[in-house]
Design brief:
Keywords: Metal-binding, Zinc, Zinc-finger. This is MYND-type domain-containing protein. GO terms for molecular function: zinc ion binding. By secondary structure, this protein is an alpha+beta fold. Helices cover 49% and strands 12% of the residues. The strands form three sheets. The chain has a three-stranded antiparallel sheet. It has a two-stranded antiparallel ribbon with strand order 1-2. Strands 3-4 form a two-stranded antiparallel sheet.
Length: 235
């Protein structure tokens, strides 16, 4: 069975080959292996710069988040808004599990500062995508599609063409767009990773609270009863 270090080395090899998706998966495998079976304080078997994590887990964690952010940027450059939003969300969710990434202590330097700055950029990018989807969904409703709630990867014609600026500074006008998010069936909030109702597998919710608020009035005929929050399926 591969060790956490070996899985990390495989991830690094894939990343340097340009296979960010493969690297992303192996970083996850390495983190899970270390947390489950190994010493989480084990040091890297190599000399590293002073501003780099000394622990293997810290190093894998940092590179995993960075890979997620890179995948988000690459997907955005390829006009794949849905994948970009999903990768940003994944990186943000992982970073949020370690408080120094989100609430940076005064005077922090080194890798935690770098990840924190990347995290701020990811939140900004995801916020822009969600805001654009929310505005465009409202425009679609105003143009006569009141019963139409665009979902993730649904392509819709825009009432007003929008300008897109790519990384080179070139601009294009787009008359249609693919949505990157779904809307919560209860509160209407949009996000690239909502949870399916565990019974009907159709309705999408932010969390168990939204499901409980929505179910009595709307979903009773479709679902027998709401299940425990852990029965949700992430998408």
């Amino acid at each position: 069975m591969s060790s956490g270090l070996l899985l990390f080395q495989q991830a690094e090899t894939l990343y340097h080959r340009g296979d960010e998706n493969g690297a992303f998966e192996y970083y996850q495998k390495s983190i899970k292996k270390i947390l489950k079976d190994e010493n989480v304080t084990a040091k890297l078997p190599a000399i590293v710069p002073p501003d780099f994590p000394q622990e293997l887990l810290g190093c894998v964690w940092r590179n995993f988040i960075t890979a997620g952010l890179t995948l988000g940027v690459l997907a955005w450059d390829n006009h794949d808004r849905a994948t970009a939003a999903k990768r940003y969300r994944e990186a943000i969710d992982v970073a949020n599990t370690y408080s120094p990434f989100t609430i940076l202590p005064t005077g922090t330097i080194g890798w935690e500062l770098y990840v924190h700055n990347d995290l701020l950029q990811a939140k900004s990018n995801l916020g822009t995508i969600v805001q654009n989807d929310t505005i465009n969904a409202e425009l679609v409703a105003q143009m006569g599609g009141k019963d139409q709630v665009p979902g993730r990867r649904d392509v819709v014609d825009l009432p007003v063409p929008q300008m897109r600026v790519d990384k080179t500074g070139a601009t294009t006008l787009e008359s249609s767009m693919a949505f990157a998010t779904n809307a919560c069936s209860s509160c209407g909030k949009r996000d690239p990773k909502l949870q399916h109702c565990s019974l009907c597998r159709t309705a999408l919710y932010c969390n168990a609270e939204c499901q409980k608020a929505h179910w009595p009035a709307t979903m009773r005929s479709a679902c027998c009863k709401p299940k425990a929050p852990e029965a949700f399926m992430r998408v």
